[in-house]
Amino acid sequence: MVTVTSQGPDLQATRIVILGGGPGGYEAALVARRLGAEVTVVERQGLGGSAVLTDVVPSKTLIAAAEWMTSTERAAGLGIRFGVPAAGSEPGESTAPGISVDLAAVNQRVMALAAAQSADIRARLDREGVVTLLGEGRLDGPRRVVVRPRGGEPEVVLEADAVLVSVGATPRELPGSPADGERILTWTQLYGLQELPEKLIVVGSGVTGAEFAGAYNALGVDVTLVSSRDRVLPGEDADAAELLEGVFRSRGMTVLSRSRAAGAERTADGVAVSLADGRVVEGSHVLVAVGAIPATRGIGLEEAGVTLTPSGHVVVDKVSRTTARGVYAAGDCTGVLPLASVAAMQGRIAMQHVLGDAVKPIRVPDVAANIFTSPEIATVGKSEAALQAAGSKYVTTTLPLSRNPRAKMLGMRDGFVKLFAHPEAAVVLGGVVVSPRASELIFPITLAVSHRLTVDDVAEAFTVYPSLSGSIAEVARMLHHPVD
Ligand SMILES: Cc1cc2nc3c(=O)[nH]c(=O)nc-3n(C[C@H](O)[C@H](O)[C@H](O)COP(=O)(O)OP(=O)(O)OC[C@H]3O[C@@H](n4cnc5c(N)ncnc54)[C@H](O)[C@@H]3O)c2cc1C
Ligand SMILES: NC(=O)c1ccc[n+]([C@@H]2O[C@H](COP(=O)([O-])OP(=O)(O)OC[C@H]3O[C@@H](n4cnc5c(N)ncnc54)[C@H](O)[C@@H]3O)[C@@H](O)[C@H]2O)c1
User: Is the pLDDT of residue 95 over 80?
Assistant: First the structure.
């Protein structure tokens, strides 16, 4: 066992040890270095964490390929024909076999991009003077981290003035039906597929399930989405979820609502998913997307005085403090809001707090989020369900995308912009954008929400004509109340 009491040249510097090198961990490391601390990141998988290696980056890269396929759907309506017409064929008649997807090539690109992103993060941390230790870490009390290095070398003990726990979460599996990486898959195992599945069953219609079901459907796969709830995306804006489910069905996806999967087993040439009501759905592969479990067990947290919720999430306050003095936590292991952007913000806030920099507590309602389906669903601020549950006064207007001139030119039909505002103060409380690239369009509404702008502030700003963002100003204009 090697004990490391201090690293780096400055013996007076605060020693920070970060457990987990995902967005929560590596963003914190950069801030802590900038604030003069000695920083060590302990990571068992690779820098960038699950966000970069298995979750956000791979899924969004796969979706980029799927998106390309979806945009070809609109091409015919715009007068585009694929293939070279043969001699004597009618104008516009295609003789080419059409477009096909080489999943092995798509997945190779996905994995290469994830690895490159991880290497970039490692290089950045190295440049900034952050020490990285590849291995499995655990707390030994609140101020000491013990690391089992990946290469089998002796354990390393790191003494710390403060520890940040940012260990993320791992995929939940169906009870009694462990993933085998071949036919029964978690989202981390999809990128080993060399060919498109013949028939993919996606269990779970949360954000992960909806994104993958939409992507594989666009890539040409026969997809069945098993949804335990009344509708897909139960936690999202009801109009957006309803629209997306309609789009899914119109593209040939089978959506089984109110259908809870009880288990999955391999058959001679595929899988059979049994539903709680006795039905059986057969397919070639099943993707299990039923949520995630925080990676907080067995790493000495409770022994160090860190309180966990019954679900295993670390209890934190708005500046990322846990119940143990000197131990902070960020990201999916806290269950505050499982998004990479939130993990990174929690990590930065933790370091600002512990190192005595100016710090603003996290404001979850200001978080912008996006579901990368086609169309995308972007949200920020208060949702309609939250406003109703709190009995808040609000006014709302929705403008369908089909009324936007740019959308008409681009051949886009499915989508809308919706804003919520306070009826008297006219302050923008929240918004929903359902549209291709909604992730890019939500930003003006995010600015409005975080700076407490009014609908008139939004309406008075110029937008380009013609542009999709013109609908945001237009919907704000529709919420204007004339002065009495
Ligand atoms: C399929 C999918 C798609 C997603 N897409 C998006 C998206 O588009 N946008 C978005 O904002 N969010 C997205 N998310 C959510 C996002 O991935 C998470 O919110 C984010 O990864 C959380 O970051 P983190 O730092 O908390 O944890 P992680 O990224 O999970 O990193 C934690 C790291 O800690 C390591 N670790 C765990 N235990 C130990 C230990 N004992 N010792 C050493 N290392 C350890 C893990 O191996 C991991 O590498 C997606 C999630 C999924 C599942
Ligand atoms: N684009 C993004 O930013 C993005 C993408 C993916 C995930 N995420 C983050 O990850 C979080 C978790 O999302 P998720 O979809 O992985 O998990 P989730 O917990 O939100 O959804 C899982 C769904 O599976 C259903 N389910 C559970 N057991 C089932 C069963 N046996 N049969 C059928 N359905 C079952 C649940 O009712 C739930 O609707 C999201 O809230 C989001 O913050 C973000």
Answer: no
Return the CATH fold of 2-52+108-170+293-362. Answer: FAD/NAD(P)-binding domain (3.50.50)
Q: Residue ranges per domain, the chain? A: 2-52+108-170+293-362, 184-290, 366-478
Residue 341 beta carbon below 6 angstroms from any ligand 1 atom = yes
For the domain spanning 366-478, the CATH number is: 3.30.390.30
User: What does pTM read for this prediction?
Assistant: 0.95
Retrieve residue 476's tokens.
């704000």
Residue predicted with more confidence, 357 or 1: 357
Q: Cβ(212)–Cβ(185) under 8 Å?
A: no
| Ligand 1 pocket, mutate which of 17, 47, 50 (most atoms under 8 A from CB) | 50
3-state SS assignment for residue 289: coil
User: Which ligand neighbours the alpha carbon of 331 most closely?
Assistant: 1
Beta bridge partners of 134: 43
* Alpha-carbon dihedral angle through residues 466, 469, 471, 473, given to the nearest 10 degrees: -110
Q: Using CA positions, which residue lies closest to atom 38 of ligand 2?
A: 206
CATH topology of domain 184-290: FAD/NAD(P)-binding domain (3.50.50)
Instruction: Calculate what percentage of the chain has a pLDDT beyond 70.
Output: 94
- For residue 300 and ligand 1, the question of a CB distance below 6 A is answered with no
Give the ligand whose atoms come closest to the C-alpha of residue 343: 1
Q: In 3-state terms, what secondary structure has residue 383?
A: coil
Which ligand 2 atom sits nearest the alpha carbon of residue 234? 39
